[in-house]
Amino acid sequence: MSKYETMRTDPANWKLGIVYCCNDDPRIVVRNLLPLGWTWNFGHQKAYIAILVAIASLLAPPFMAWQMGVRSALAIGIIITVAFIAVVLVASRLARDP
To answer: Which of 7, 29, 60, 67 has its CA 20 to 30 A from that of 79?
Structure first.
């Protein structure tokens, strides 16, 4: 077991069992305690910036498409889906051990 996995599974680093906060862990995104998904490392200084970037990455593409005259619900849905997949791929990369 790696030192990062030890930090992730340490109950002292989980607030209320759902919020991960470990200042010693260099990862911004970590694998959740549940077998599926990720969570933010709120002990990392750049986590809050990463959250804002993730939100902007999800909201900006459909907003820009709307401003460019795209009014099709299908097109907007596809744009949102692609933006979501991009955020998930980046999160999965950030969750790897350094």
So the answer is: 29
